[in-house]
Design goal:
Elements: H1 2-29, H2 47-58, E1 60-62, E2 81-83, E3 90-94, E4 100-102, E5 116-118, E6 141-143, E7 151-152, E8 165-167, E9 175-176, E10 191-193, H3 206-210, E11 218-220, E12 246-248, E13 270-272, E14 295-297, H4 306-317, E15 324-326, E16 334-336, E17 349-351, E18 356-359, E19 373-375, E20 380-383, E21 397-399, E22 404-407, E23 421-423, E24 428-429, E25 432-433, E26 446-450, E27 459-460, E28 474-478, E29 498-502, E30 521-523, E31 530-532, E32 536-537, E33 543-547, E34 552-555, E35 560-561, E36 563-567, E37 572-576, E38 589-591, E39 596-599, E40 613-615, E41 620-624, E42 637-639, E43 644-647, E44 661-663, E45 668-672, E46 685-687, E47 692-696, H5 700-704, E48 710-712, E49 717-720, E50 734-736, E51 741-745, E52 777-781, E53 784-788, E54 797-799, E55 804-807, E56 821-823, E57 828-832, E58 845-847, E59 852-855, E60 869-871, E61 876-880, E62 901-903, H6 914-958, H7 960-998
Parallel strand pairs: 3-5, 5-6, 6-8, 7-9, 8-10, 10-11, 11-12, 12-13, 13-14, 14-15, 15-17, 16-18, 17-19, 18-20, 19-21, 20-22, 21-23, 22-24, 23-26, 25-27, 26-28, 28-29, 29-30, 30-33, 31-34, 32-35, 33-36, 34-37, 36-38, 37-39, 38-40, 39-41, 40-42, 41-43, 42-44, 43-45, 44-46, 45-47, 46-48, 47-49, ...
Antiparallel strand pairs: 1-4, 2-3, 52-53
Helix pairs in contact: 6-7
């Protein structure tokens, strides 16, 4: 009985698939018609139809020459042409991959018996689909996919009433429809593919249109700009799709949850909803309605923990049918991996990559004995690799990279005989990987063990005589210990295309046999390799990438090389750059930084038309920057810093409009900042520091360079004001203008630098970007020169120190909440420190020393809890030093020295005690009261004298009798005083004389 049920289930699953396979057979069988007699004599093609084909050929452009076979009397023998064996009529044109272009002649309409037309994968360069194609009454098969048709799809295709197969999947040019009503005239259609066709104008009724196709087996509407996904209702839009096997709605923008009616299509075998912005809860439906589901792809959506609920439900209804389950790139999908995964007895592909699963691998997974691909990369899975991993005898791909796994790698992994790809990157493995781990991996082609550079305890240990059982194509072993000697076993694989042995402790010369390998990628960086390179760095196959940086290689540079990316930085190469370097026309990236190279930059570099990046920094190059690089239109990264280059910036620099990084710092360049720089509208990083540039900072830096994020002009001889246009740079997060002769006030608008008001998160992935250049910049932070590399994107700094700036610190600067370093020292700033400085919560370094700032230290400053470096010395500050929060750790008196008004620790000047302060306040109060009384007294005296004087004078002038009486009184008084004085003076003289006589 159980065997009978199993047989019925298999018939349910495979009969629909077999029926669809017969569809193609049906279309091709009808080429010869059901009345064809294979034993009847071959009559050859009809002359009239032969002329039709030649006229059709005449309008085409035969790029591949495949139509050159269209010669001779019998057109039925021409390539791509099939005829009816009985009548000789042309019934099939299969011109797939013929490389055709040009125009499609309507003469084809004379092929009255044509029922199969395939023009897919050709190059019609955007011409519209001919309208007359809707007039082939017998056509059953029409494939125009990836043929570069464009424009409006003709609704006349709805006249092809016998059509079974229609594929209009676009390729290169946009096709669109105004409506899908014409689909209702195709009742026998079994296969429909409108992938990449713009259906945005019919997005609200696409479900009703396809609902009119009851015979449909496959529906592909991938990347059609659909945004409406109707949910279940009593008017189920898919009620008639009772035979649907495949539904592909991927790469649309539904932004909704899974609709319930999907789970009512009981015949559904393959469901593709990847990258369709599906999220939210799973509908409460009977998942057992999908007993035939073989493939479910919900990757790259917004599915959260409800995805585990879906897996648990499917493990009940589809445990014997499901073969492929893709839930990767759902970043909100979290929790532990469900044990129900072990119920999918026939599962072959399981992909949960780039999600947020945690915890160990469940033991139930060991029951998936038919598994061929297990991808759990980029999660937070922890614990060791279980020993039962060796039970996966059919696994071809195993990817556990970038998780939190640890422990030793089990030797049982060497039992995966079918394994072709093994990725164990970015975990915390311990112990040793030895020969026994590879003993049966005879089919291994891809092996990656790229670990964190902070954890180099893991060892890859094999004997020098080891002959690997596999023939690798790709090998990446990084940041673990391999061997001090160069691995000789690399000579064994005959198909090796990529070798990465980065930071693995090799201290040896590079063997000569390595240069004879047929490789495309070679990375031996960050070892201790020494010796010289061959005079010609050439491989049997032109290599794409060669990175030998951070070693001890020396001698002269190779004279020639057939590589695309050449990275030889941070070695001991000396001598000049080869004069014929321009002959290496394939070069796109050239990094010779950090060597001992001298001489000038060769003029032949102007021949490197495909050059995208050049880094010659930190050498001893001299002379002027070449003026003939105008044709290097691909160049976007230029680093010539830390050399001895002289002269001015050549005009070609910004004739290359796509330059986004320009570093010419630490040279001997002179002159004003060239106006040609304003053409660098895409420039993100500009470093001209430590040269001898003069003149003013141009206003066009803020007006034209809207993408600028890093501006470093320190250490020059620039003069004038800081232009307020710099405030317009919304992406600017590093502004270093220190050590110039700038004057004027700091722009009040500096608080408008919006990039210093929000937080940017730094990526945490271990794998490095494809491009070899690592952006870096030397900045003064906490009083020391510091080189920033990997964290440079999140460094926020303003340094205006050592100039002649005056005025007050702009209050708006306190709006820069994520500014990390602010250095305004060694200027002539006055006024108070802004009271709201405590709002700068991201501030770690603050240097306001050597100015003329006054007033107290703001009470809000201790609120900056991230502050760990402070310098307020040599100002006119006064009042007590705060003691709370971070200020309790600032114990160095140098921070506050030469501020005579400051008191409190760590200075020796004590502030008054509270009682003394109260007594002093009382005294001050009394003195203030006395002062007020004295003030009023003197005011009264000042007012009383002129008032009294003019009252008396006016009275005497106006009243005659008063005037005579007053002056008579004055005369009498005067006479009395005179007589009194004379009499008393005479008496005094006689008394004095008498004293002298008797004395």
């Amino acid at each position: 009985m159980a065997r009978k049920k199993t047989t019925l289930l298999l018939l349910k699953v495979f009969l629909p698939s077999l029926f669809f396979e017969l569809l193609i057979v049906e279309a091709t069988t009808n080429v010869n018609s059901i009345d064809a007699d294979l034993n009847i004599k071959d009559w050859g093609c009809i002359e009239g139809e032969k002329k039709v084909l030649l006229e059709f050929k005449h309008g085409l452009i035969d790029l591949s020459g495949r139509l050159s076979s269209w010669v001779g009397a019998d057109c039925c023998k021409w390539r791509g042409v099939d005829c009816n064996n009985k009548t000789g009529n042309v019934v099939k044109l299969d011109l797939r991959y013929f490389g055709l272009g040009g125009e499609i002649s309507d003469s084809l309409l004379h092929l009255k018996h044509l029922n199969y037309l395939d023009l897919s994968f050709n190059y019609f360069q955007g011409i519209p689909i001919p309208n007359f194609l809707g007039s082939f009454e017998r056509l059953r098969y029409l494939n125009l996919s990836n043929a570069e048709f464009g424009g409006m799809i003709p609704p006349r295709l709805g006249n092809l009433s016998h059509l079974r197969y229609l594929d209009l999947n676009g390729g290169g040019y946009q096709m669109r429809v105004s409506n899908l009503n014409w689909l209702s005239s195709l009742p026998f259609l079994k296969y429909l593919d409108l992938g990449t066709v713009d259906l945005s104008k019919v997005t609200s009724n696409w479900t009703q249109a396809v609902n009119m196709l009851p015979s449909l087996l496959e529906l592909h509407l991938s990347e059609c700009e659909l945004n409406d996904f109707p949910h279940y209702s009593h008017l189920n839009p898919f009620v008639n799709l009772t035979s649907l096997l495949v539904l592909d709605l991927s790469y649309n923008d539904f932004n909704t949850t899974l609709p319930g009616w999907l789970f009512n299509i009981t015949t559904l075998r393959d469901l593709y909803l990847n990258d369709a912005t599906i999220g939210g809860s799973i509908p409460h439906v009977n998942l057992q309605s999908l007993p035939n589901l073989v493939t479910l792809d919900l990757s790259s959506n917004d599915i959260g923990s409800e995805g585990i609920e879906l897996v648990n439900g499917l493990s009940i209804c589809c445990n014997n049918s499901l073969e492929e389950l893709y839930l990767g790139y759902n970043y909100w999908l979290s929790g532990q991996l469900p044990d129900s995964l072990g119920n999918f007895n026939n599962l072959r592909y399981l992909d949960f990559s780039y999600s947020s699963f945690n915890g160990p691998l469940p033991n139930s997974i060991q029951h998936l004995t038919k598994l061929e691909c297990l991808n759990m990369s980029e999660n937070s899975i922890s614990g060791p690799i279980p020993t039962w991993i060796g039970n996966f005898s059919r696994v071809k791909r195993l990817d556990l990279s970038f998780n939190l796994m640890n422990g030793t790698i089990p030797e049982s992994i060497g039992q995966l005989r079918e394994l072709t790809e093994l990725s164990l990157d970015g975990n915390s493995w311990e112990g040793v990987l030895s020969e026994i781990h590879f003993i049966n991996l005879t089919k291994l082609e891809y092996f990656s063990l790229h670990l964190s550079p902070q954890k180099r305890s893991f060892r890859f240990h094999v004997t020098p005589e080891w002959i690997p059982p596999f023939s690798l194509k790709y090998m990446d072993i990084s940041n673990c210990h391999v061997s001090p000697k160069f691995p000789g076993w690399l000579r064994t694989p005959k198909r090796l295309e990529k070798i990465v042995l980065k930071n693995v402790g090799i201290s040896d010369t590079i063997p000569k046999w390595l240069w004879t390998l047929d490789i495309e990628w070679l990375d031996l960086s960050r070892n201790q390799l020494y010796g010289k390179l061959p005079n010609s760095l050439s491989f049997s196959r032109a290599a794409l990438f060669v990175d030998l940086s951070f070693n001890r290689l020396g001698g002269l540079l190779p004279c020639s090389f057939n590589v695309t990316w050449l990275v030889l930085g941070n070695n001991l190469f000396s001598g000049p750059i080869p004069l014929n370097i321009g002959d290496s026309s394939r070069l796109q990236v050239l990094d010779l930084s950090g060597n001992l190279l001298n001489g000038s930059i060769p003029l032949s570099m102007s021949k490197l038309k495909g050059l995208k990046l050049i880094d010659l920094s930190n050498n001893h190059l001299c002379g002027k920057i070449p003026k003939n690089w105008n044709d290097l239109h691909q160049l976007d990264t230029i680093d010539l810093s830390k050399n001895k280059l002289s002269g001015a910036i050549p005009s070609w620099v910004c004739s290359i409009s796509n330059v986004d990084l320009l570093k010419l710092n630490d040279n001997n360049l002179i002159g004003e900042l060239s106006s040609s720089l304003q053409n660098c509208t895409w420039l993100y990083s500009l470093d001209l520091g430590n040269n001898r540039f003069s003149g003013e900072i141009p206003k066009w830096i803020g007006e034209r360079m809207s993408s600028l994020g890093q501006l470093r002009l320190r250490g020059n001889m620039l003069t004038g004001d800081i232009p307020k246009q710099l405030c317009w740079l919304s992406q600017l997060h590093i502004l270093d203008l220190a050590l110039n002769n700038l004057s004027g006030s700091i722009p009040q608008c500096l608080g408008n630098l919006t990039a210093l008001t929000y937080v940017i998160l730094l990526g945490t992935q271990l794998n490095e970007p494809f491009i070899s250049y690592s952006d870096h910049m030397e900045l003064v932070v906490k009083g020391q020169d510091t080189k920033f590399e990997s964290i440079l994107p999140i460094v926020n700094l303003i340094d205006l120190s050592s100039n002649n700036l005056w005025g007050e610190i702009p209050k708006g600067i306190t709006d820069l909440s994520t500014l990390g370093t602010l250095n305004l020292s060694r200027n002539q700033l006055t006024g108070n420190i802004p009271q709201k400085i405590g709002a700068m919560q991201g501030l770690e370094t603050l240097d306001l020393s050597c100015n003329r700032l006054s007033g107290p230290i703001p009470l809000s400053m201790p609120l900056i809890t991230s502050l760990n470096h402070l310098n307020l010395s040599h100002n006119l500050l006064s009042g007590p030093i705060p003691t709370t929060n971070q200020f309790s750790t600032f114990n160095d008196p140098f921070i506050y020295e030469a501020n005579l008004g400051l008191c409190g620790l760590p200075l020796s000047t004590n502030c008054s005690t509270p009682n003394d302060q109260n007594h002093r306040n009382d005294q001050d109060k009394e003195e203030d009261e006395d002062g007020r009384y004295m003030t009023w007294f003197f005011i009264s005296m000042g007012l009383g004298f002129p008032v009294g004087f003019w009252v008396v004078c006016c009275s005497l002038a106006l009243n005659k009798s008063w005037r005579h009486a007053y002056f008579q009184f004055v005369d009498e008084t005067r006479d009395k005083i005179y007589v009194f004085t004379v009499v008393n003076m005479a008496h005094l003289k006689r008394k004095i004389k008498r004293i002298r006589v008797h004395g």
